[in-house]
Specification:
There is one protein chain. By secondary structure, the chain is an alpha+beta fold. It has two domains: 2-136, 2-Layer Sandwich (Fructose-1,6-Bisphosphatase, Chain A, domain 1); 145-254, D-Maltodextrin-Binding Protein, domain 2. The chain is 33% helix and 27% strand. It contains nine helices and 15 strands. The strands form three sheets. The protein has an eight-stranded mixed beta sheet, with helices on both faces. Strands 12-11-13-15-14 form a five-stranded mixed beta sheet, with helices on both faces. A two-stranded antiparallel ribbon has the order 1-2. Strand 8 and strand 9 (130-132) form a beta hairpin. Helix 1 runs antiparallel to helix 3 (41-57) and helix 7 (185-193) packs parallel to helix 8 (207-219). It is globular and about 50 Å long.
């Protein structure tokens, strides 16, 4: 199954690049899910490709896709975000990803995040660690918030949620080294997994935004919880960091 996932996410990433080339010729169709939330024909085409491949290989498996919704099946479920970071994709920026996770009986067992423009494929298998382009990765050793570079996002603001990141951002910004905003939660979590980011927090995420990334962080030695320090609130509010930094991040968010 891991080899199958590797193959189809490589193909899906290549397909996204074909559509991305249409940006230069202004022939890519871009629509709106809401006033601020975009969806392109690339999102739809990449997800359709992945769903067709999965259904051909594993016809009894369930699927949850961002664009096509729920496809019923057994206790195996594939969770797809065809283009995580559509705004970056539309603005011809490199920080978007194809994200696919496999869940069995409620637990993530496989995850892959492919950043096509960057040429990077992050993969994780439960109990077997996480890799970047086939090489093992691990979370950072950062032990203090004052040394930490954190990632975050503002999907909550884009969705006009009353409980949003505008309350948490000013709490953290003065006490950390810096913040990065890549626009793809899947990439943010992959960067925590490989130590490029020391931690990550965000609100109002969907399962397909973070399923693969959560497993990457966990298999790279990190911790992923909601803001209360449990996994029960996921998806939604998420924190991710190495085991030393994670409780410090939770405390700062609650301060």
């Amino acid at each position: 199954m891991k080899e199958f996932l590797n193959r189809i996410i490589d193909q899906a990433a290549a397909l996204s690049l074909e559509y991305k080339r249409q940006l230069q010729s202004d022939t890519l169709t871009v629509n709106r899910k809401s006033q601020k939330d975009l969806v392109t024909e690339a999102d739809v085409a990449v997800e359709r490709f992945l769903v067709e491949q999965i259904q051909a290989a594993y016809p009894d498996h369930a699927i949850l896709g961002e664009e096509s919704g729920t496809h019923d099946g057994n206790d195996w479920r594939w969770i797809i975000d065809p283009i995580d970071g559509t705004t970056s994709f539309v603005h011809d920026q490199p920080f978007y990803s194809v994200s696919v996770a496999v869940e069995h009986q409620g637990k993530m067992v496989l995850g892959a995040v492919h950043a096509p423009v960057l040429g990077e494929l992050f993969m994780a298998e439960r109990g077997k660690g996480a890799t970047l382009n086939g090489q093992p990765i691990g979370v950072s050793q950062c032990a203090a918030l004052s040394d930490a570079v954190l990632g975050t996002g503002f999907a909550c603001v884009r969705k006009d949620k009353p409980h949003n990141n505008m309350a948490y951002f000013p709490k953290l910004m003065p006490i950390i080294r810096d913040v990065r905003r890549y626009g793809s939660a899947a990439i943010d979590l992959a960067y925590v997994a490989c130590g490029r980011l020391d931690g990550f927090w965000e609100l109002n995420l969907n399962l397909f935004d973070m399923a693969a990334g959560m497993l990457l962080v966990q298999e790279a030695g990190g911790v992923v919880t909601d803001f209360d320090g449990t996994a029960e609130g996921l998806p939604g509010c998420i924190t991710a960091a190495n085991p030393t930094l994670h409780p410090l991040l939770l405390a700062a968010l609650k301060a």
